[in-house]
Amino acid sequence: MISYPSRHCTVELQALPSRIGQVRRIVSAQLRYWHLDPLIDRASLGVTELLSNVHRHAQPDKTCTVEIELLLDRLTVSVRDGDPRMPVVDDAEPLATCGRGLAMVAAMSESWGVRPDGESGKVVWFTLPTTAPVATPSLRSRRTIQEKPARRFAEVGASTDGLRPDHAPARSAVAG
């Protein structure tokens, strides 16, 4: 049994810088509508990277389709374009100003991939889980009553002359 219905949104556009920002806002609004606010940043980052690749590499036409689909506990974001050349994930040089987009998509998503779309195109996609894993606190992170809290940066220890209190507030170097 499917616990919630399929949700789907499609946007067709020219992958131009001004349009990329518009699509990012559309994706954000759609995820808010579906009550998936925790996914907005990662989905926006991923769709921006994929559309930037279409803008930079797709030939001869920059027309593409962005689809977001929610099925059960997975959000899939895909970008379809008319260029049959498959993207390649390269190791970018440390000072390179480009070449890290797909590696970033891979790092922030649950899975990603590319598939041919007919004879003259491709679809690049990534998925995000819609349910956050349940965090279980470790025993090491629990504090017992006997433990003293770590000192904050604004606290100072006892002075050697005994005139100042053990804990004094930090003072600003700015007059006023």
Tags for this entry?
5 strands, disordered C terminus, 176 residues, alpha+beta, globular
Give the structure's gist in a few sentences:
The protein is about 25% helix and about 20% strand. The protein has about 180 residues and is α+β, with helices and mostly antiparallel strands. The chain is globular.
Structure characterization notes:
There is one protein chain. By secondary structure, the chain is of the alpha+beta class. It is 24% helix and 22% strand. The chain has 3 helices and 5 strands. The protein has helices at residues 17-33, 40-57, 101-108, and strands at residues 7-14, 63-71, 74-81, 111-116, 122-129. A 5-stranded antiparallel β-sheet has the order 1-2-3-5-4, covered by helices on one side. Helix 2 packs antiparallel against helix 3. The longest helix is centred in the first third of the chain and has 18 residues, at 40-57. It is globular. The N and C termini lie far apart (66 Å). The model is unreliable at 134-159 and 167-174 (pLDDT under 50).
Write the layout of secondary structure elements.
Layout: E1 7-14, H1 17-33, H2 40-57, E2 63-71, E3 74-81, H3 101-108, E4 111-116, E5 122-129
Antiparallel strand pairs: 1-2, 2-3, 3-5, 4-5
